[in-house]
Amino acid sequence: MSDLALGNEHHHHHPFLQHHFEDLGQQHEASTLGMWMFLCTEILFFGGILCAYWIYRVMYPEAWAVAAELQNKLYGGLNTIVLIISSLTMALAVRAAQVGSRMWQLGMLFATLIFGSVFLAVKGIEYSMHWHEGLFPGSHFTWHEHPAVAQKVQLFMCFYWGLTGLHALHMIIGAGLLLWIIGRAWRNDFGPEYYAPVEIMGLYWHFVDIVWIFLFPFLYLIHGVHHG
Amino acid sequence: MTTATLHDVRLVGASTNRNYINDEYGALSWLLTKDHKRIAILYLISVSIMFVLGGFFAMMMRIELLTPDGDLLTSDTYNKFFTMHGVVMIFFFLIPAIPAVLGNFILPIQLGAKDLAFPKINLLSWYLYMAAAVVGLVVIITGGVDTGWTFYTPFSTQYSNTHVFGTTLAGFIAGFSSILTGLNFIVTIHRMRAPGLTWYRLPLFVWAMYATSVVMLLATPVLAITLTMLMIERAVGVGFFDPALGGDPVLYQHMFWFYSHPAVYIMILPAMGVASDVVAAFTRKKIFGYRFVAFSSLAIAFLGFLVWAHHLFVAGISVYSAMIFSFLSFFVAVPSAIKVFNWTATLYRASVSWQTPMLYILGFIGLFTIGGVTGLFLASIGLDIHVTDTYFVVAHFHYVMVGGTVMAYMAGLHYWWPKITGRMYPEWWARLAALLVFVGFNLTFFPQFILGYVGMPRRYHAYAPEFQVLNVLSTAGASVLAVGYILPIIYLVWSIWFGRKAGPNPWGAVGLEWTTSSPPPKENFHETPVVTWDAYDYPAMMKAMGETQNV
């Protein structure tokens, strides 16, 4: 602590103010804008593959309807609820950081981590089921209930595994970030003056949540024109 | 009291000698630096190495094409060489060159900021670039890749037995390096401008970097997902573009060019920014139509997203969508022409200083215009079908990429070299190199317009004997061009130790970067500057100088 004081003889800097910013307000605005910009990139990242999904959906509505029936709506619905609750706990964690309540912060961050893990566990069970049903594309693909559309169902499953896999990867990265934020909250880093890391963690988490809000109907619910 | 005064003197003495280069020593102080200026130097070294590597592939191709027979390289090797030339030059040189080297160094100083908004992310972006470069080099050493830099499916997913996965992985990683640079620039421009530095007081280089960053941020992720889908397909054996499953290879082309056409503007917009700064500095004038030039950058960035399918005119897209994309491609010429006219209007009746940066930019304006206008030829559906996959296309995009981007990069490198190193480059040698580059470039690529127009296809290692004369001219030009590029490598390195010392402002130019010492101190400015003048306020400066002389 005394070293820190020596380093900042002229100004009494907040310990987390980086040297190239004028004040914490500028630093906060820069980091939140940075995360919003990153989320713009993410929208285009998921947008690319969703656009491809949508084009094939228009081309092959029958196959897409058959493939949606193969998804487990119970697990998908359960995971949707779990993720929405995790977004609530994440938002409460940001609020707790703003008002400087360490216990609420830790509690809510930990709850978010638990809900995220539940989501990943359920997803894992689904993956395992699909694997055994022969619904993994490539040489493992043995599903032949409707031979007429089997190949196109395989194309759908490419998107299913690709989209949910990329989403799960984002969840795993989010869980890692949560652990880091929990560590910092444990050290009581955050308070009314400085809570930007919790806030941008929240932005990321809500984004990953919203991606799922698109994936769930696209992959599980919408049956296409013939079954709709 | 006396001790305090002594102490102050020592502080002043130390602060004038200290700069970002001698602030710390040792390899780790560079490899773990968070200083945007040092990261720019790391990028400068890396992109220069990649440029030489890409140039080697180009030179080998030109030597092969000296004779009509395929006698130096087998067709397989030739396929790999043009692919790796494209991959190295586009992903590892043209896209990072101006933003990551010149932008990294100059942009924060032009904004009066101490650093970019996210210094650690800036360093991360260099490490991602290096990781991508290492993957790319491993691919090259272990046998290369032969798909063309566009990785068209189904050849890339099913038929090619070369390292498609590794190369696309390298492109994927390099893409994230570029996204992080763009993100850093946008946030820095929004949030880190010095007091008084309003948007319309920004140098046009900053506007150009802003437009570039928007394209980096919004187009690159589409490449990332496209290459991810391609890698999954390559790894699993079936996938998104596989015709056997009902997949559509043309969809791959749409997705690829949704990034890769805007990527052209990632390469050319920064070049236009350099051109504006250099034209103003060496004509001692305000840029004619500042706001038009500024907003034309944004217009190019926006329109650049709407023209991608002009790469697909022969891929079986409908005639109606071809007509729309043709029209939009013509439209993107408007903001580009606005810039060229404004530079020309600035040059009109100016007393031009003929230093090296200006020579490169004069070359840039002419060559970019030729590249742009031949782009309009290619945007016309009928003519495009006639010259698709011929050397006409090769000549066109080299006029934009090399005649445009590389010329402007060389201009910017010479213009800001005294600021970066504190030393002047040798003017005579630099002018000679600029001349060699201009002559060599035209001799290399102008014959290719004719070759393409009379029907010589691209991407073959052998050709019909009647094309030989023009090919010999082209190879001769490439040799001159190579000398023109090797010379700066030698004299710029030489100048670091032996060049004449440059003051803070060797060009007498206006702009925040010229108000700090050369090389700048670690924190760029000893005091945060307050800006009270417009960009390129040369008239005010000239008037002030005139008054001083009268007094």
Structural write-up:
The complex is a heterodimer of chains A (228) and B (551). Chain A is mainly alpha-helical and 228 residues long. Chain A has helices at residues 2-7, 24-59, 61-69, 73-99, 102-132, 150-186, 196-221. Chain A has one domain (42-221): Up-down Bundle (Four Helix Bundle (Hemerythrin (Met), subunit A)), CATH 1.20.120. Chain A contains 7 helices and no strands. In chain A, α4 packs antiparallel against α7 (196-221). Chain A is elongated and about 70 Å long. The N and C termini of chain A lie far apart (66 Å). Chain B has 551 residues and is mainly α. Chain B has one domain (28-550): Cytochrome c oxidase-like, subunit I domain (Cytochrome C Oxidase, Chain A, Up-down Bundle), CATH 1.20.210.10. Helix content of chain B is 70%, strand content 0%. The chains are: A mainly alpha (228), B mainly alpha (551). The interface between A and B is large, with 40 and 46 residues.
SS-derived structural category of chain A: mainly alpha
Beta strand count of chain A: 0
- The name of the CATH topology of chain A is Four Helix Bundle (Hemerythrin (Met), subunit A)
Average pLDDT number of chain A: 91
CATH architecture of chain A: Up-down Bundle
* Mean pLDDT, all residues of chain B: 94
Report the CATH topology name of chain B: Cytochrome C Oxidase, Chain A
Sequence stretches where pLDDT stays below 50 over 5 or more residues of chain B: 1-15
Q: CATH homologous superfamily of chain B - what is it?
A: Cytochrome c oxidase-like, subunit I domain
Please tell me what the overall shape of chain B is: globular
For this structure, what is the CATH class of chain A? Mainly Alpha
> Which regions of chain A have little confidence, pLDDT < 50, spanning 5+ residues?
1-10
Helix content of chain A: over 70%
Q: Please write the string of helix (H) and strand (E) elements of chain A.
A: HHHHHHH
By helix and strand content of chain B, what is the structural category? mainly alpha
